[in-house]
Write a structure and sequence with these properties.
single chain, alpha+beta, FAD/NAD(P)-binding domain, Flavocytochrome C3, Chain A, domain 1, 2 domains, 8-stranded mixed sheet, 4-stranded antiparallel sheet, 22 strands, globular, disordered N terminus, binds adenosine-5'-diphosphate
Length: 467
């Protein structure tokens, strides 16, 4: 009898649940429908994933957003500068033009003309709207006095503010179910269409989340040195000074596994001079007349320090322990870049080259010989602009070249739909943010990345829900 009563209760519960699921509108909180199904599953809670979630939710869709780390933010949170946008009110008011045409040209040229013009045009055409949307979130900006392409915060840290604003906006929607410490491991495909993903939840339990559409927003490879080296062997040994822990190329692997097309995977934005989360301009070692030098653990120069940043990174990575020391004198220290590297990377200061060497753990006689040779303009590496290391005190800083941005990623069309190797749409799968390839070719204009999070995050979400 008792058994029958329990069975009846179970059947009743099931019926009620089914009814609720059938009658509930798109904006019902997911918990009242089916815990593991949604209109949109967003994978990755950095800039692109948060924007996509907000956009889908404000258009009435139920969203599950999975983020593998204990907090959202990804590498977006460490974006230090600002957003690039053209033809904005700020430009009009300041009478400083940065037109859509300028923006397009700059983006294409920086990409070495490898970027997909169609995607770049979408990025540029939507940049003012993206900037205006940020204002609606309560963020306040000004033009960078040094470069009208850049719109920077009136005060404070750009990326941290951005993520805080996105989080606050997302929190307004009960139809966004944010699941932290939940890692997507595999895309689920049925009849050629992506219908969800396998995830491992915070308790280590495997689950399948079903969704009408899936948006990949997993960021780049900056914390996956082996993958970076796989896609470009020049960067074997690359360090991870310039990244948060989350961007480990999961989206690339998941998309690869179902036959997605990858684009421009060999290109990374390298920071040859970086340490402890900060990077330093190469001007420290290549400035005409005063630039310092790089030495390896044998206290020997090994490269023309004025070469391109990606080649310089590669040459440093070939040295013992994939690192080098930046050596310079007071004249470089007296520049803002010199001061910054000494302060932030905890540089060593010494009155003599020998003492500097001792403090850095280098052979004093060897470093003295290297510096003397360099000051005598004896340069076996064909350096284009010579500097000098003559005026005490002298400074030395360790550098661990790191990847700052992953240019390549999954190929998308103008709707942010992921393409397969034949250029055909993979139904049900979208991508936005750093996981996308094709927007930047060999090089990225700083500030375009947080712009593309917004532009393609919104496009992906809207197309995914048929808006
Ligand atoms: P974007 O600017 O493209 O949004 P971010 O680096 O800011 O890139 O954000 C990417 C986010 O995706 C990070 O928070 C990262 O932890 C998250 N992420 C990466 N892989 C997974 C995964 N497999 N499952 C869930 N979240 C992931």
């Amino acid at each position: 009898m008792k058994k029958i009563a329990i069975s009846m209760l179970l059947i009743m519960t099931l019926l009620v649940t089914m009814l609720t699921a059938c009658t509930s509108g798109g904006t019902e909180p997911i918990s009242t429908v089916d815990k593991n199904s949604a209109d949109v599953l967003v994978i990755g809670g950095g800039g692109a994933g948060l924007v996509a979630s907000i956009t889908a939710a404000e258009n009435g869709a139920n969203v599950i957003l999975v983020e593998k780390m204990p907090a959202v933010g990804g590498n977006t949170i460490i974006s230090a500068t600002g957003i690039t946008a053209s033809d904005t009110k700020l430009h009009q008011e300041a009478g400083v033009p940065f037109t859509k045409e300028d923006h397009f040209k700059k983006t294409m040229e920086t990409s070495k003309n490898l970027a997909d013009e169609k995607l770049v045009k979408i990025l540029v055409d939507n940049s003012n709207a993206a900037y205006e949307w940020l204002l609606t979130l309560g963020l306040k900006y000004k033009l960078d006095p040094k470069d009208p392409a850049w719109i920077i915060p009136e005060e404070g840290h750009y990326g941290a503010q951005l993520v805080k604003a996105y989080q606050a906006e997302a929190a307004k929607y009960s139809n966004i179910d944010l699941r932290l410490q939940t890692k997507a491991t595999e895309l689920v495909v049925e009849n050629g269409k992506v219908v969800g993903a396998k995830v491992t939840d915070k308790d280590g339990k495997e689950q399948v989340i079903k969704a009408k559409s899936v948006i990949l927003a997993t960021g780049g490879l900056n914390n996956a040195p082996d993958m970076i080296a796989e896609f470009n062997p020049k960067y074997v040994g690359v360090n991870t000074e310039m990244t948060t822990p989350g961007p480990t190329g999961d989206g690339i692997r998941m998309a690869q596994a179902i036959g997605a097309q990858l684009k421009d995977m060999e290109y990374f934005q390298m920071r040859p001079l970086s340490l402890n989360g900060h990077w330093y301009k190469e001007v420290i070692v290549n400035q005409e007349g005063i630039g310092g030098i790089l030495v390896n653990k044998d206290a020997k120069r090994f490269v023309d320090e004025t070469m391109s940043s990606w080649d310089l990174a590669s040459e440093i990575l070939k040295q013992q322990d994939s690192m080098a020391f930046v050596i310079f004198d007071t004249d470089v220290f007296n520049t803002s870049d010199g001061k910054k590297i000494v302060e932030k990377a905890k540089g060593i200061k010494a009155d003599t080259i020998e003492d500097l060497a001792k403090q850095l753990g280098l052979d004093p006689a060897a470093l003295k010989a290297t510096v003397d040779e360099y000051n005598a303009k004896n340069d076996p590496f064909g350096r284009k602009t010579l500097g000098k290391v003559t005026t005490a005190p002298f400074y030395g800083v360790k550098t661990l070249p790191s990847s700052h941005y992953t240019m390549g990623g999954v190929a998308i069309n103008e709707n942010a739909q992921v393409l397969d190797k034949d250029g055909k749409v993979i139904e049900g799968l979208y991508a936005a943010g750093e996981v996308v390839g094709g927007l930047y070719g060999a090089g990225r204009v700083a500030g375009n990345n947080t712009l593309d999070d917004i532009v393609f995050g919104k496009i992906a979400a809207k197309h995914a829900i048929g808006k």
